[in-house]
């Protein structure tokens, strides 16, 4: 069983079935996805439903809908630096660096959609995916393990985008996206919780799933709203909402033991 040390860092106990399940959830999908033939990037991907221009701003709705990532990225980095004394910092910092860079990379891509510009959209997203994964490991499994994983996870994220760009094969990139999505519910449900407000992570998870659905129905949402807003723009807003829920969790959470003591003290006073 995991435990906290005096600095509220998670120390992993002996290896058990939970750790084995987590390893399986991480690596079995990798073997599974590479059992398929290479997955190329289709040119249709760049043909978004909403291609309206605003003065000199092409595809303006898909560009402007990235602004929430800028705001959340800046606020998230400030939040991460302000609470460094009592938790693992590096994973959350990498996550919010990724979110901040998504604003620049995604705006650049939607300004002129192509495989070359898509690299700069996907690269910061891998920072976010790997940052979230490392942060969850650090706060639910082992703080020391997360420190060891940070650089390898970052390199794997960069490699996944580079591998796609060099070989036109998305398999490794898809796996990098899947890792935090598959491990988040396992970690939250199977490992002891150290901090409060963990339910906001489930809301973030839900927002991301809805964002992928909105992306798939890009044209249908555009038509259903009378060409007011497209599914891809909705995707940006939902993904940013998920990032905001993570920010809210970090702002409001406390160590569960402290929260329990506070509640008991208030009951005694009443």
From TrEMBL:
It comes from the Bacteria. It is a multi-pass membrane protein. The chain crosses the membrane at residues 21-40, 60-80, 92-111, 123-141, 148-166, 172-191, 200-217, 237-256. It is found in: Membrane. It holds the Pfam family Ceramidase. Keywords: Hydrolase, Membrane, Transmembrane, Transmembrane helix. InterPro entries: ACER. The keyword Transferase does not apply. This is Ceramidase domain-containing protein. The lineage of its organism: Bacteria, Pseudomonadati, Pseudomonadota, Gammaproteobacteria, Alteromonadales.
């Amino acid at each position: 069983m995991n435990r906290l040390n005096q600095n509220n860092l998670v120390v992993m106990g002996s290896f058990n079935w939970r750790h084995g399940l987590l390893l399986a959830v991480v690596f079995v999908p990798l073997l599974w996805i590479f059992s398929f033939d290479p997955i190329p990037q289709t040119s249709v991907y760049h043909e978004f439903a909403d291609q309206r221009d605003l003065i000199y701003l092409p595809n303006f709705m898909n560009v402007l809908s990235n602004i929430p990532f800028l705001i959340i990225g800046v606020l998230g980095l400030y939040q991460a630096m302000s609470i460094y004394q009592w938790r693992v910092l590096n994973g959350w910092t990498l996550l919010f660096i990724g979110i901040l860079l998504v604003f620049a990379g995604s705006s650049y891509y939607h300004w002129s959609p192509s495989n070359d510009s898509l690299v700069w959209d996907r690269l910061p997203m891998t920072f976010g995916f790997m940052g979230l994964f490392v942060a969850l490991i650090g706060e639910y499994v082992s703080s020391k393990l997360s420190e060891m994983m940070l650089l390898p996870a970052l390199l794997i994220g960069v490699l996944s985008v580079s591998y796609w760009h060099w070989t036109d094969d998305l398999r490794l990139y898809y796996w990098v996206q899947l890792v935090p999505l598959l491990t988040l519910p396992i970690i939250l449900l199977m490992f002891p919780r150290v901090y409060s407000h963990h339910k906001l992570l489930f809301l973030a998870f839900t927002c991301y799933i809805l964002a992928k659905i909105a992306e798939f129905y890009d044209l249908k949402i555009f038509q259903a709203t009378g060409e007011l807003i497209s599914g891809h723009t909705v995707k940006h807003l939902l993904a940013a909402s998920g990032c905001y829920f993570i920010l809210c969790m970090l702002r409001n959470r406390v160590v569960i033991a402290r929260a329990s003591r506070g509640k008991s003290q208030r009951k005694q006073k009443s």
